[in-house]
Write a structure and sequence with these properties.
Length: 279
């Protein structure tokens, strides 16, 4: 796309995970105020800002990454659903077309979408529904397997777990290009086992597990500058193949792009999280 291939890279600040000071298990607790319904987050771990992190712009070089090689992949796709104004409409209209799209792009035989999030950045960047400005992976291996048990009929689970499955996020800007606070993705090949730390994600009714990511100067960060609503990225959060032959997950984060023009509309995006199965 003309005009978006430059700059070839940007330098910015990313927020990385640091383990709890007491050496205990890291956790993040989501608390809902019963009176207002507002959510807040309590956690026992810290973040550290790392300056001068280089993020390569892949505009014009999108074919240098793929789900199995780097853990993420860009595609052109125009959605039939355009409004993204109502959760029930999204489930009724956007979910079915996205299931078929993920099948087509991955070769999967079964795709089950289990949730979605619409993110709208506020100028103060304080909203819980805004871009996540913390390097992370959405699901640990244990949490990924638990998702299969949670979202699918018990009778289907044993056979599904015998074969390859993944958790894949489908991420798309909505309404306008995502020049503001775009999404950075880390090449899985540059991530070491020691960089990854399980983090308990505690809700009132259940417990999941994400992965915190510690800083490593060798991390290779990428983004696609000015992604439009007709462009998507598939983000691999988990793969049951863990023999070193394919990327297993993709650390990612929203970030402040210093090349964003003044007056750019705040980022709006939608991400779908899906269980993806293969025969």
């Amino acid at each position: 796309m003309p005009g978006l291939t430059s700059p070839a890279s940007v330098t910015t600040t990313l927020s990385y995970f640091t383990p709890p000071d007491d050496g205990g298990k890291a956790y993040q607790k989501v608390i809902t105020d019963p009176a207002t319904g507002n959510r807040s987050v309590e956690r026992n771990w810290n973040s550290e800002e790392r300056f001068n992190v280089v993020i390569e712009n892949l505009r014009g070089r999108e074919d240098t990454v793929s789900l199995d090689k780097t853990g993420f992949q860009y595609f052109q796709h125009t959605s039939k659903h355009m409004s993204f104004a109502n959760d029930e409409e999204i489930k009724a209209e956007y979910y079915p077309e996205s299931v078929e799209l993920i099948k087509k792009l991955t070769g999967a035989t079964r795709v089950e979408i289990f949730d979605h999030t619409i993110r709208k950045r506020s100028p103060e960047q304080k909203s819980l529904s805004g871009p996540v400005s913390q390097v992370h992976v959405d699901q640990s291996s244990a949490a990924s397997i638990a998702r299969v048990h949670r979202h699918l009929p018990a009778s289907d689970v044993p056979k599904l777990l015998e074969k390859r499955f993944q958790i894949i996020n489908l991420w798309r800007p909505i309404h306008h290009p995502a020049l503001d606070w775009p999404l950075a993705l880390c090449d899985h090949r540059s991530v070491e086992v020691a960089d990854i730390v399980p983090v308990a994600l505690i809700f009132p009714d259940r417990e999941g597990e994400t992965l915190g990511v510690k800083y490593n100067e060798n991390h290779k960060w990428k983004y696609l500058r000015g992604m439009t609503p007709d462009e998507i990225v598939l983000i691999k959060c988990f793969d049951s193949i863990q023999d070193g032959s394919v990327a297993v997950f993709t650390p990612h984060t929203g970030f402040k792009d210093p090349s964003t023009p003044d007056g750019t509309a705040p980022r709006e995006s939608i991400e779908l999280r899906s269980l993806v199965f293969y025969d």
